[in-house]
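DATA SHEET
Item: assembly model
Revision: 1
Owner: S.N.
Input lines:
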Amino acid sequence: MSFIKKFIEAETLSRRNFLLAGAYGISGAAAMRMFGPSPIMAATYSDPTIAWSYRNRTNPYWNEIVSGGEAFVESLGKSKDFLTHLINEGSSEKSLADVKALLAKTNGELALAIDTNDAPNARPVVEACVDAGAYVSTLWNKTDDLHPWDFGDHYVSHMSWSDEGPAEQTARILLEAIGGKGGVVHLGGIASNNPAIERLDGLKNALKDYPDVELLDAQPADWDTQKANQVMQGFITRYGDEISGVHCANDTIGYGVLEALRAEGMDIPIVTYDGNPQAVDLVAQGKILATVFTNPHWGGGITASLAYHAAVGHFKPSEEPHEHREFYGPTIFITPDDALEFKANYLENVPTYDWTDFWGPSNGQIMYK
Amino acid sequence: MADFMTGGNSPLISTLRNIILKWAPLFVLASLVLLFPIFEWLEDFQRGKDHIYLIDSRFFSIRNASRIAVAATPGLMVAIGVTFIIIMGSIDLSMEGTVSVSAVIFAFVFIALGGTLASWAWLAIPVALVVGGIMGFINGVIHVMFRVPSFMVSLAMGFVGTGFALVLTGGDRIRVEDELFRSLLTVRWLNFPIMCYVALLALLVAWFIQSRTTLGRNFYAVGGGEELAIASGLNVSRVRIMGFTLAGIFFALGALMAVGRIGIAETATGNNFMFISITAVVVGGTALWGGIGGVLNTLVGVLIVNVINNGMVVIGLPNWLQDGVLGVLVITAVVLSTNRKTISFVK
């Protein structure tokens, strides 16, 4: 039976050779990669992948952001499907994992616009992008010690909004409307949310200049219409006609307040925030005195545009001043006088933006407290 | 409902206990109504203002009573629905999804058919009730046919409902502006908006179903002792499915009230109804293991919850305390209404 034994030996040998060859193939390729061109040195790309990483599209606010990103991609003459969507569904871990996967797939040839879901997640995302040679622009979330200028060209920009200033201005509109005297109440967002804190602080800042106006009460209404309705009913019972104006942390709260006032037959001025289409209609009808629009469409488009134009080398981020690397997004005040004009210009027809005017509508360098 | 409470040491103690249990929720409600004006009196006393207890109270006034009633109506409808289920010893947690779906479909149909009650748009009301009924029917069928615990089926259906409402609206709000429909809130008879009378009518219907129909009595039979009910030849599966369907219809009624109150239908319309309604049912004295309680208990429970919510704002206590106080109240109510002598173990 020796021919059988020979056959088995031969087969074993050939299989071992096959395995060895295979192993060499993999490691050899990896070794070659080590001596290849470093991605960091390859500064710009002719046609990088463009991606937006965000929570999800069911929220109207994020839908606006992403539609801006799509509008930018279309302005490059591509179909809007060219934009890659990374959806984190509110998970920072998924956000980071998706970015790393896309970096591996694109070999770093990536222009990424991202909200990292929470502030601590911004650093690992930025570092992963910088290491891979991709270009990243962030929106909303980052820690105060993380700055684009510390990363050369690859961390292009960060945009955020401060709500304190705009909330202070709507408060001033309200306080002027009640003649600078009387009592106001504030209905806030979820008490621990940063925008909720900033919007109440804005009201308090404005009140310093109006010594005859008393802040009767401030309670959280959790950004919720029905909750706001109930809290406002309580305020009406407690303060009744002492309330001469209402400061709301957002439009949704404003709707609940308006209905509570309507049930009582009361007609007093209220101001809100966010500039939702329905709130703009109510401003036009004179039911809301003022709201603030933060133009998420532009914010989403320009964040992707900054990362893209840096990636293709149209401008060199490290040569730009700090106020072009970290800046506040736009805020537009809407009052009964300009509500219809605003609606026609921004809501019914989304304006065609010049996506290379990176900083025109922005609002100055981000200040840290 | 006292005759359903048996057990205890001696007949005398047992009877006493039953009387206390039966009237405790009403006693709590009355105490709260008298308690909040004391805080108001104290506050004015400290400021040196004239204040006669109760007469000068802003809380203890007819205007505020109507505010509390308006705030309570949607929650009352939902709580009545879940009362039937809890009497059967099951639980229904689908209210948030069912309310959102019913509200959103109501608004879509209402606007599509003309946008005013004076046109064919009134058909949106029965459509919404049918939608609620279908959601409840699905709950019941899955619960009975596949023998899945009711809390799990209904919780999952609730999520399905919320998701479906989100798909329908895409996250937008739908405004229902019709003056005729909104007269539910804006037109008052004897100081109370029309929606309070509609809710009262619904409460009467619920009470009638509970105490004057076979179906209502069967809920108690199933909750009081399911084996006994089966042994007596009762089709328990059918009773359960009908119970869940009925609950769904009342959830949809709650959705109509919620839209009537703020004029907006959205995915968030159903928010918070789970906590409010279950709290109200339990605080009102309906026992979670079934067989005891009823819709009148639920009325008292809903009023307790809303009097606390309103009163805390009126006396100027921070909002976050309200949930804490309600939580303590739920535990107290369950401890009080549990007859530890007759229960061998608790799961």
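QC remark: Chain A is about 45% helix and 15% strand.
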